[in-house]
Design goal:
573 residues, alpha+beta, 8-stranded mixed sheet, 6-stranded antiparallel sheet, 17 helices, 23 strands, 31% helix
């Protein structure tokens, strides 16, 4: 396990708008060191956490083409400093093209799964470029061009191929080879590039520059939009200029749930299913003696909790298209009944639970978290679905497209690439946003602010839950992303666990309780966290030792004359 890397940059700069009730310093944790540095650059240039979030997102789009990008989308959870703090949720999830329909991927009476995974037809309309403009305009202090400048440099000068890049490229090698533009950009003579070789993306640099110069119209209209639509349609896709012109991010009320210890969980609402799963999990566990339990007993309680909350997820979908029964799912009486149904000594077979619709969702994402000296904070999870998305890059743009259409239930009676069953609530429809497990999360209280998030598809809520339990246990911040992981998602009825997550004796004890266990070949996830201890005035951040990310702290001393900044007005919906 690599040691947690904390980079302390001691800089003195004028921090406009410093607020006395903030931490007085800033922190960033992201999945790539270049992205963390981009965030610190925005902060040290006088930007706030929202500027830093834009800089980090754009840098990740360049440095992690396997995990996010301008051709994808994501969720941004915002904390606006003040007494009291305010919270907002920016939904930049991709939308199905307007020509999409429930039979889009059916051929000769059967769904062809490859059509929603590889190539232009698999791509939904991207949301990340709109989010970068939205955050800068409504919440930031710097210009969009300034916030995108680090990403432009990275794209033009090149990023180094690291072990994660090589692993992800190998997993998608055939799909990347099948697209000439993706093969040219991301492979070397049809093979995975050697470690430390450079990936240069000059066309992406120019696309970023147009976005910075013209805002959303620099991507969703004009030259970039015309090239995107022409390239997609030439490759068999169904995008139109209207699809791009009509895309908008949506600000939704974040999910807010009071916790037993006086804190509050602030999380992602639908079309994220992850925030609901976390709220349900904590609501169930407060009725179970998980904290004093030994490791086997605690794991049993968590597994049985996950079994029940994942069962409910198929009820959720895009709130603009379906009614999400949040009141019923989060009703304390309902959660207490679920807790009462857990046998402390025996696993409940999933087949024995009352049936509920199953669900469908894809995997590869990235996550970062940032807080500034005032106490503004962002937790953001970004995605293009599978590594390298649809493995299709639009010629002349450098934009690698997502394959988020596979996150819909293309076949409500079937499964997707991750063996996750479909549901009618998440069926393909024109203009609809697919369900997601992405779960950027805050836990805020008078004592402190904690931030969590990770990639990992269906395993995101279970990873974040385990980290939250470490936080509630008072364990060191560095341990939250390092904690061993296990996962249950109702169906298939088994517990997946990382190598080394349980000892031989613990595995035997869980098996005696009826748990079906499956050891994974490798560790998973890439959790990014931070914690502001308000009482002690201490700020810490940590990056998952499974990845190559960096947690960085920026010490700042504002001038005595600095005044608190005016809180941003509510953005237009």
């Amino acid at each position: 396990m690599k040691r947690l890397s904390l980079l302390f940059l001691l800089l003195t700069f004028s921090l406009a708008g410093w607020a006395a009730n903030g931490p007085g310093k800033a922190a960033v944790a992201s999945a790539h060191p270049a992205a963390s540095v981009a965030g610190l650059e925005a902060l040290s240039s006088g930007g706030n956490a929202f500027d830093a979030a834009v800089a980090i997102s754009a840098a990740l789009a360049v440095a992690e083409p396997y995990g996010s990008g301008l051709g994808g989308g994501g969720f941004f959870l915002l904390r606006l400093a003040g007494e009291p703090a305010e919270y907002r949720f920016v939904d930049a999830r991709e939308r199905a093209p307007l020509a999409a329909h429930a039979e889009l991927y059916r051929r000769a009476g059967k769904v062809d799964p490859k059509l929603s995974l590889d190539g232009a037809l698999a791509a939904a309309i991207p949301g990340l470029p709109a989010a970068l403009e939205h955050l800068t305009t409504n919440y930031g202090r710097l210009s969009l061009a300034d916030n995108l400048a680090p990403a432009v440099r990275l794209a033009r000068d090149g990023i180094s191929v690291d072990r994660v890049y090589r692993e992800r490229a190998l997993a998608r090698l055939e799909a990347l080879r099948a697209d000439p533009e993706s093969a040219r950009l991301f492979l070397d003579a049809g093979q995975v590039p050697e470690q430390w070789s450079l990936i240069r993306q000059p066309q992406l640099a120019r696309t970023l520059e147009r976005l910075g110069r013209y805002g959303r119209s620099g991507f969703y209209a004009g030259e970039t939009a015309e090239r995107l639509v022409a390239g997609v349609r030439a490759a068999g896709g169904i995008w139109s200029l209207r699809d791009l012109a009509e895309y908008r991010v949506v600000e939704r009320p974040p999910l807010r749930v009071a916790l037993a210890d006086g804190g509050e969980l602030i999380g992602a609402p639908p079309p994220s299913a992850g925030g609901v799963a976390l709220a349900q999990s904590l609501g169930i566990l407060q009725h179970l003696p998980w904290q004093p339990a030994d490791r086997v007993q605690r794991s049993h309680y968590v597994i049985e909790t996950l079994r029940r909350v994942y069962r409910d997820r198929g009820l959720l979908g895009d709130p603009d298209f379906v009614a999400n029964p949040l009141r019923q799912l989060l009703d304390p009486a309902y959660l207490k009944r679920l807790a009462a149904g857990i046998d402390p000594q025996r696993a409940t077979p999933s087949s024995a639970l009352p049936p509920a619709p199953a669900w469908h969702e894809g995997q590869h994402t990235t996550h970062f978290t940032v807080i500034d000296a005032e106490g503004n904070a962002v937790a953001a999870t970004l995605s293009i679905n599978l590594p390298f998305g649809a493995a299709f890059t639009v010629p002349g743009t450098g934009v690698l497209l997502n394959d988020e259409m596979d996150d819909f239930a293309a076949d409500p009676a079937g499964t997707n690439a991750y063996r996750l069953a479909g549901s009618q609530a998440n069926a393909v429809a024109a203009g609809k946003r697919p369900l997601s497990s992405m779960a950027p999360t805050f836990i805020d209280s008078p004592a402190g602010l904690a931030s969590f998030g990770t990639p990992g598809g269906s395993r995101i809520p279970s990873m974040v839950l385990l980290a939250i339990l470490d936080h509630l246990d008072g364990r060191p911040v560095a341990q939250w992303p390092a904690t061993p992981r296990y996962h249950h998602q109702y169906l298939p009825d088994r517990v997946e666990y990382e190598p080394g997550a349980f000892s031989a004796a613990e595995l035997q004890a869980l098996e005696r309780r009826g748990q079906r266990l499956e050891r994974l070949e490798r560790r998973y996830g890439n959790l990014q966290v931070l914690f502001w201890d308000k009482a002690a005035g201490r700020l810490e951040a940590a990056s998952d030792p499974r990845g190559i990310g960096e947690a960085m702290l920026l010490e700042a001393w504002p001038p005595a004359a600095a005044q608190p900044a005016e809180r941003p007005a509510a953005a237009a919906r």
